[in-house]
Structures are given as structure tokens and as C-alpha cells.
Write a structure and sequence with these properties.
CATH superfamily: Porin
Strand content: 35-45%
Low-confidence stretches: 1-58, 60-64
Shape: globular
Structural class: mainly beta
Number of helices: 4
Mean pLDDT: 87
CATH architecture: Beta Barrel
């Protein structure tokens, strides 16, 4: 880490930690503390059953059927109220710069202007929700419209129709944001698309979730609630492919970016290359329990065709469970998952991911008024490890059999909860690497907010999970106007 970057990092950490320690706003009177919860509207569950587990900060917008209504001036309110539908949205600008020289990428990490329009219309029998982002982005070299990857001038994030065919059932059809599970920015049973480029360049956390083109059936009863999600055509992650962020290529044996982008063999055949995800959940006393199942494909490329050189998405089955509930003065969670790599069941194909067992345990508690600490332990256990080592091509760096990751989140609310300071750190003792996210968001008014932060990677080896991204370290700022 260079002197300049170290100074910037020390200043950011010093400012964040000192503000956390010293900004002692008096606690609000009982009953006036604003809850942190999802804005997505869910049907009321039968007696004895709870709602879904609380989602990580920034990921609460789950359904396309949600509403945001910041205070408006009289003229704007009159115009918006005259429309035959509800219209909300925002316009924002974000600018970021890299902290290291990377010959494979531009110096600008993010440079965009975004207009989001959210339209909602209600009828007695249904609700329509559409969310579209109009985007000018100066960083990509290509600006062709690509709905799957979010490329081009339009990112259609939601376009879904919510139907209520029965009192105990919801049916949502169309493009929608889907999420479940208990992890805070760690996902085991949540096998819905993620946008890792957005996550690492400084967009707001809500953009980590990419949309799915799916049908979601939610059934509610006194035994358990059941979600059935069918995706007729595979929706992959918006994965890191070198076009925006550099990474380590085992084929090239070096860090690559725009000079060697990933080309994939896409699975895009409707009804033939599809996905099915299931979740059953209910309360067990004060604890929320869930079972999960998934049939589809690795969401980011998990293999490579040795003949064509194209990255592939091998077949994947996944099964898991989670438990979430109160412990002492906080909330504890446990989540497990088994990834069955169907195209490499014995683990001896070096061009396809081995099966994995994954485990997550976490605890979150308010340490002081408006100061919350969350910690997590995450394990990836590679199966059939001996076969994996024997089949590994000469010169390829071997993964550890067990990858351990610890995360820490500190969140401080100050200035009447208008200022949110957040520090989130991943540290992998097995890989000896990590990733630090620092963010400050200040609400100037009901409509205006400003934000700044950093994405900092560290590691001694260039081929580890976080160490490979060290050249992508960046700082960013943003300003948003909501209406």
C-alpha cells in the first residue's frame, strides 16, 4: 500500500471512528426511534407466523411493489398527484477514482449520472410496478443496450405484476428483485443474481441485487409459508469480467482487465435452461427457521470449456437451512448450504467447480445508543479435495480446502439519524486477504443526500479472492435528489 493511499485510509478510518465515539446524540423518546426495515410490502401472515428475516442494510427493496415518497414542494406534488399512477424516483451523480495505477483499466472507477423512475399503479385485483434507471456512464467502452448485464443507457430493474389469486397466495410475474437468507453481504442460499461490479465501485448497496425475470408464488398457511420461484431462462450474476474491474486469471497467470475480458457460453434458452428455487419458513417460538432448495447453475462462471476457452455455468443443485432469533441483547443467525456441482460430482474435473459446503454464523447487537456492531464467521469447505489437487493443471495456484472469512460491521447514526457512518470489513485468515468498505451518508433534507466512501482490498497474494482486486482500490462521492 503506497504512502498516499495509506494516508487517505488512515484519515477515513480516523474520521469514522472518532465520529462514532464522540457524536453522542441524545436518544429519542421511547416509541420515536425509526425502525430499520424493508419498504417492500408483504401480505399479512396468519397468526403465529412471522415475516421474513430482516435483510442487510441497503438490501431492503425486495419487491417491485414498493413505494418511496420523500417530501415534495407544492408545485411538484400537484403535478405528481395529477398523474394516473404513482411516480417516484431520484436523480444522482457519482464520481470515483482509483488509488493505484492499473494499466488494464481507466483511472476513473465510476463516473455516471442516473435517473430512476418508479411507477406504481393499483387496482382491486392487481398492482403493477415498474422501475427503470436511465444512465449515462462514462467508464465502459461499450454502450450497447444489454438488459441482462445492465449495460447501456437503460437498466430495467423491475417490471412486474402482483396478483392476489387467493387470500393466502400472492403471484408476482415479471422482472423483479429477489432475495432471501440471513447473511449481511454474504450469501449462501440466496442464489439470485448479484451485481459485483456495482458493489465494488461504490454504487449504493441496493445495486448489489440484480433483477430476475421470474414468476414468484408465495403461499401462506398456519403450518409454514412457502415461496416458489421459477425463472424460465437462466439469469447469471453481473460478474467481474475484466471490462470494469481487473482480476487474476489462472489461464494467463496474471492480473487481467480490458486486455483479456471474460467471454462466456451463455445459457439463454427459454424453458430449457431454467431455474427453480424453493423456500419454506415459519416461526419456532421466537426463532425464524427456513429451508431452501435450488436447481439451476453456478451464478458466476464456475467452469471453462477447454476447447473453446469460453467460461461456462455448470449445473448446480443447492440445499440449505437457516435459523435466526434473539440471544442476550442481540440477534443471532446460523445458515448452512450444500452446493452439489452436478457436472463434477467426483471433483476430478479441473475445468469445473467442485461441490462445496458453506456455513455462516453471525451476531448483531446495539453497543451504545445509535451504535450497532455486527460480526460474522463464514466457511467454504471444498469437497473431494484430494481429487481436486490431483487434477489441478501444472502451475495453477491451489485453493485451500477450507476458506475462512470473518466480517465486522460498525454502524453509527448521528445528527438526529441524518448522518449514517458505516464500516464493513471482510478478513480471510486462510487467504491472508480482506476487503474494507467505508461509507458516510448525510441527508441534507427530505430530498437531498450526499455520500462518500471507499473500497479497499488487501492481501499478500495476487491470486486470492480479495487480493486479486487490490488494483481496484477506489474512492467515490455521490449526490442524490429524490422526488
Amino acid at each position: 500500500m503506497g504512502v498516499t493511499r495509506a494516508a487517505i485510509l488512515s484519515s477515513l478510518l480516523g474520521l469514522l471512528l472518532s465520529t462514532m465515539a464522540l457524536a453522542q446524540d441524545p436518544p429519542l423518546p421511547a416509541g420515536l426511534v425509526a425502525p430499520v426495515s424493508s419498504t417492500a410490502e408483504e401480505p399479512q401472515l396468519p397468526a403465529g407466523l412471522s415475516s421474513e428475516p430482516t435483510l442487510p442494510s441497503g438490501l431492503g427493496t425486495v419487491s417491485s411493489i414498493s413505494s418511496r415518497s420523500p417530501a415534495r414542494d407544492d408545485a411538484a406534488a400537484t403535478f405528481l398527484d395529477s398523474l394516473p399512477f404513482d411516480l417516484t424516483g431520484f436523480i444522482e451523480s457519482r464520481l470515483g477514482t482509483r488509488l493505484d495505477d492499473d494499466t488494464t483499466q481507466k483511472d476513473t472507477s465510476i463516473g455516471e449520472v442516473r435517473l430512476q423512475l418508479q411507477i406504481e399503479s393499483d387496482w382491486d385485483w392487481a398492482r403493477l410496478g415498474i422501475t427503470a434507471d436511465l444512465l449515462y456512464d462514462r467508464v465502459p467502452e461499450e454502450h450497447n443496450l444489454k438488459f441482462d448485464s445492465g449495460g447501456g443507457w437503460l437498466d430495467l430493474r423491475q417490471a412486474a405484476l402482483l396478483l392476489r389469486p387467493a387470500d393466502n397466495a400472492d403471484l408476482e410475474v415479471g422482472r423483479q428483485i429477489l432475495t432471501w437468507g440471513t447473511g449481511d453481504l454474504i450469501f449462501i442460499n440466496d442464489l439470485f443474481p448479484k451485481d459485483w461490479n456495482a458493489f465494488f465501485i461504490g454504487r449504493q448497496d441496493e445495486y448489489l441485487k440484480a433483477p430476475s425475470d421470474a414468476v414468484k408464488l408465495a403461499l401462506f398457511n398456519n403450518v409454514a409459508n412457502l415461496d416458489i420461484i421459477y425463472t424460465p431462462r437462466f439469469n447469471s450474476d453481473r460478474f467481474i469480467d475484466g471490462r470494469r474491474l481487473s482480476f487474476f486469471s489462472p489461464i494467463q497467470g496474471r492480473i487481467v482487465g480490458r486486455d483479456f475480458p471474460v467471454d462466456v457460453d451463455s445459457r439463454n434458452r427459454w424453458l430449457r435452461e431454467d431455474e427453480l428455487a424453493l423456500r419454506a419458513y415459519r416461526n419456532l417460538g421466537s426463532w425464524e427457521a427456513a429451508l431452501y432448495a435450488y436447481g439451476g447453475y453456478w451464478k458466476s462462471p464456475g467452469g471453462q470449456d477447454p476447447v473453446t476457452g469460453l467460461a461456462t455455468f455448470p449445473n448446480l443443485y443447492a440445499f440449505g437451512a437457516s435459523l435466526r432469533g434473539p440471544v442476550a441483547s442481540g440477534i443471532a443467525t446460523v445458515e448452512t448450504g450444500y452446493y452439489d456441482s452436478r457436472d463434477d460430482s467426483s471433483g476430478d474435473n479441473p475445468f469445473i467447480n467442485n461441490s462445496e459446503f458453506r456455513f455462516l454464523a453471525s451476531y448483531e447487537q446495539e453497543l451504545l445508543p445509535q451504535l450497532t456492531l455486527g460480526v460474522q464467521y463464514y466457511l467454504e469447505w471444498l469437497q473431494d479435495y484430494d481429487n481436486y489437487r490431483r487434477s489441478l493443471p501444472p502451475g495453477f495456484a491451489a485453493r485451500d480446502e477450507k476458506r475462512h472469512v470473518f466480517t465486522t460491521r460498525l454502524t453509527r447514526l448521528a445528527m438526529n439519524q441524518n448522518l449514517t457512518l458505516s464500516l464493513f470489513n471482510y478478513y480471510g485468515p486462510s487467504d491472508e486477504d480482506g476487503y474494507l468498505r467505508v461509507n458516510a451518508n448525510y441527508k441534507l433534507s427530505d430530498q437531498w443526500q450526499i455520500e462518500g466512501g471507499s473500497n479497499l482490498f488487501y492481501g499478500d497474494r495476487r491470486y486470492t479472492f480479495f487480493g486479486q482486486f487490490e488494483d481496484n482500490n477506489n474512492l467515490y462521492v455521490g449526490i442524490r435528489f429524490g422526488f
